[in-house]
């Protein structure tokens, strides 16, 4: 891109901020009319709620604001590349997205979208697409080349199915061909591709791995979402012995090497990657102090209680702080839960390690939970470099132009 194109892209930020969601809604509607086959990749639930449009609008703004300083986008290129790879986003998809994104900008902004501005955005998009295609191509090649690796979706058999709570069910998956599995890192996720009976298109969903690598099988733990097409099918329609199409694990939400105390905070089903991380850490005979914090509505929906209790019983360096929003008859403080009410700094403070601002914090859960934890960490004065997070749902930060 030349200097004038960069100036024009950055100058469009106010207009995009004002019209961003209108542009992205127009983009999706137009693209799916022209290419309905892409509904086999994109999650229609996120389209219906507008979450995907908001995510893409935030992504476009972030990209425009940093077009002359892409290094400030940090590791987000890698994070989104992981998501794209799990969806099997291919180089041929990028021109389609570019065409319809530019068309949406022109349609919504009208006369304000001059030929010069559209040319500048075409150059910007081409630059980003080239970067993403290169990064994703390397990831595809590395994943397929490793021992036990593969490309695309591979059949796995459901070896076990277990209810962990009234909302969460675990599925243990073994490769149908009996081959050993390549290593993955706790905190990563699996993508499943399913065809729900009565649905016209394939559906792809990502679920965090809830157990560390053992070389032979995967465990995912799925929350039944209200009205969830795929989660409902997995809970009700998929049984032990059935096959599912599974992608190689992906994701960059993994433990970093550090000597600092570790605080893990999860909300609801956000416990799944953090439980895998805890098990991976303990399997390495680590003596690193860990505070394992979990916030949940109540005992009926509290998954993995016994599994975590056993881990803590055998590892005195791990402390627990479980928050029940609603305590019921029979719930025992110190056994089932530790604090009543929602997560707050005052309630959490007694469980944090000394010098809490020096610890590393890993947190996962719905967007509202992640926002609350960010505010809590701001109050504690925890540096951004010691915060590691993954929010379930579309990313609200830079996500490339093909959204996650």
Helix content: 25-40%
Uncertain residue segments = 394-404
- Mean pLDDT, nearest integer? 89
The spatial strand order of the largest sheet comes to 4-3-6-1-2-5
Major sheet: 6 strands, antiparallel
What global shape is seen? globular
Q: What string gives the helices and strands in order? A: HHHHHHHEEEEEHEEHEHEEHEHE
How much strand content do the residues show? 15-25%
Descriptive labels:
404 residues; alpha/beta; six-stranded antiparallel β-sheet; 12 helices; 18% strand; disordered C terminus
What is the topology?
Elements: H1 3-11, H2 13-34, H3 44-49, H4 51-65, H5 76-86, H6 93-109, H7 115-145, E1 154-163, E2 168-175, E3 189-194, E4 203-208, E5 218-223, H8 229-237, E6 243-246, E7 262-267, H9 271-283, E8 290-296, H10 305-313, E9 318-324, E10 339-340, H11 345-348, E11 360-365, H12 367-380, E12 387-391
Helix pairs in contact: 1-7, 2-4, 2-6, 5-7, 6-7
